[in-house]
Design brief:
Elements: H1 2-38, H2 45-64, H3 70-94, E1 98-105, H4 110-118, E2 124-130, E3 133-143, H5 147-157, E4 162-168, H6 188-193
Antiparallel strand pairs: 1-3, 1-4, 2-3
Helix pairs in contact: 1-2, 1-3, 4-5
């Protein structure tokens, strides 16, 4: 009797939980792998891909061996949904990549430009004609980890300025603030993620 109860507990509770957790991990790895490829970190993508598929095979194998149990389907689909969220959240915390920030302002941008330069950012500015008159367009290429700092600077000097942010595949010979984490390279954001309280 005890074996039957234990078997029922395993198939109805423990195994669906394992499928759910396995799916979270494999989809998280898959999301991060795709992001690494898009960022040009091709040497990391195969490592994540290997573990992604190994875990996926476990999860899908359990579902196929229990095709009549709806709980497994729900656990599989729920893990997939949560894995997407977790993968994106981790990638945001790692803050890998380079971005271009384009700022368009009617207001004189001299103070904003000078402050960006003093903070170590490279800046290019041009005069242009907008729909309602003359404007100044300011470009700066930044590391993704510095995005919130840049947005804060823009709002501080010109809250009404229009700005857009785009991903950059690669950039060379740019001017960037000094590395804040040094040895971790592309994993500066990951080190911040692993700290207590982050």
């Amino acid at each position: 009797m005890e074996n039957i109860i234990n078997s029922g507990t395993f198939s109805l509770i423990i195994l669906p939980i394992l499928i759910f957790l396995a799916r979270i991990v494999d989809v998280t790895f898959g999301t991060i792998r795709i992001i690494f490829v898009s960022r040009g970190l091709k040497w990391l993508a195969p490592i994540f891909g290997f573990f992604e598929i190994m875990i996926w095979l476990f999860a899908i194998g359990q579902v196929f061996s229990n095709m009549t149990n709806i709980t497994y389907y729900v656990a599989y689909a729920g893990g997939f949904a949560c894995g997407n969220f977790v993968g994106i959240w981790i990638e945001e915390k790692m803050a890998i990549g380079t971005m271009v920030v384009r700022i368009i302002t009617k207001k004189d941008g001299i103070q904003l430009i000078e402050f960006l330069k003093t903070e170590g950012f490279g800046v290019t500015s041009i005069e242009a004609e907008g729909a309602t008159g003359k404007v100044k367009i300011i470009y700066t290429i930044i590391k993704r980890r510095d995005l919130q700092q840049i947005v804060g600077i823009i709002k501080r000097f010109n809250p009404k300025a229009f700005y857009s942010i785009e991903e950059v595949r690669s950039a060379a010979e740019g001017i960037f603030p000094p590395e804040k984490q040094g040895l971790m390279g592309n994993f500066t954001g990951f080190s911040r993620l692993m700290r207590p309280g982050k």
